[in-house]
Amino acid sequence: MWHMFSPMPFGAVNLSHRIVLAARSEETSFDFYRQRVSRGGLIIAAVGEIRDEGAASLWRGLADEIHARGGRIFASLGAKTVETACKQSRLAKSAAFDGVELILDLAQLGALEAAAAVWGHGRVGVRPAIPGQSADIARRLGRLGRFFLHVSHSGDLAEIRGSFAGSLLVSADLSVKEAETIVAGRQADLVSFQG
Questions:
Q1: Taking burial as the number of CB atoms within 10 A of a residue's CB, which of 20, 75, 116, 186 is the most buried?
Q2: Which of 158, 150, 187, 193 is nearest to 173 (CA)?
Q3: Could you give phi then psi for residue 9, rounded to 5 degrees?
Q4: With 0-12 CB in 10 A as exposed, 13-18 as middle and 19+ as buried, what is 82?
Q5: Distance between CA atoms of 125 and 149, rounded to whole angstroms?
Q6: What angle do CA 113, 57, 66 make, to 5 degrees?
Q7: Is 75 helix (H, G, I), strand (E, B) or coil?
Q8: Where are the alpha helices (DSSP H) in the chain?
Q9: Are strands 8-10 and 13-15 parallel, antiparallel or unpaired?
Q10: Tens of pLDDT along 100-129?
């Protein structure tokens, strides 16, 4: 039976539990991430944009600290075009992130393949820029299983799960009991309380 503290492969990364820290504000401090790292856990940092190699170097320092404590860290990026997704993915890789999440709408999904060209499949996912498009994005990505999907609500998980074979993360204002029910019922693979 699945539960929040059962391990799982998350694409190309192995996690020791299913609780993710998914920050939403780009103003989140590095100390916030440092204080919340867990061995075998995943942090999705609200990066937004990595401007250049100098900025990548700053993020690399944080990523190295997270790795030294046994955690994993993905960058959440606002990469809206294929060219931007490619550039941001390269900079995120240079910054020692373990993968990327792109904040995209339905019309921008081609950027996922650009990121996957840098990272390989299993380290790239999407967070819908428009929450109402979650089910449509799930259908578009379908049964590929190559990307993860990060939704910010729990209202239509059954519909999303029915059409999406990849790893599914839900970030919402959940109680612990609701989160446990979602994971135990396999409605989602991972949960975040930082919705």
A1: 75
A2: 193
A3: -80, 130
A4: middle
A5: 6
A6: 80
A7: strand
A8: 30-36, 53-68, 82-94, 110-119, 134-141, 157-163, 176-184
A9: antiparallel
A10: 999 999 999 999 999 999 999 899 999 999
**Which strands, in side-by-side order, build the sheet including 168-171?**
20-22, 42-48, 72-77, 99-104, 124-128, 148-151, 168-171, 190-192
Homologous superfamily of 8-192 in CATH?
Aldolase class I (3.20.20.70)
Q: Taking phi first (over 0 means left), then psi (-120 to 50 degrees means alpha), and beta for anything else, what does residue 50 get?
A: beta
Distance CA 70, CA 72 (A): 7
The model's pTM is 0.94
Contact 142, 149 (CB under 8 A): no
d(CA 192, CA 153): 11
Cα(115)–Cα(123) distance, rounded to whole angstroms? 9
Identity of residue 116: A
Q: Over the stretch 132-182, which tens digit does the pLDDT of each residue have?
A: 899 999 999 986 778 999 998 767 898 999 999 899 999 988 889 999 999
Six-digit token string for 179: 């989160």
Burial 30-49 (b: 16+ CB within 10 A, else e): eebbeeebbeebbbbbbbbe
Domain ranges, ordered by start, for the chain: 8-192
| Amino acid code (one letter) for 175 | S
The residue to which tokens 């940092």 are assigned = 45
99 vs 92: CA distance, rounded Å:
8
